Amino acid sequence: MHFPTWLLGLVIVGVCVGISLGGVVLVRRSVKLSDLEEHHDVAGFILAWWVSSTRCCSRSWW
Length: 62
What we know:
Layout: H1 5-30, H2 33-53
């Protein structure tokens, strides 16, 4: 079978985005909001630590 490259690319990207969105929907429906809020608090501290530890004088765009 022969498909145009742009169509094949569009299908691959569309399938990947669809799977990703499906995963988000499944997690949101199966995990309680209170559990998600606890993980957001922890993730906020981890992200803040990571951003502060990766800052370097040579990276002026941060």
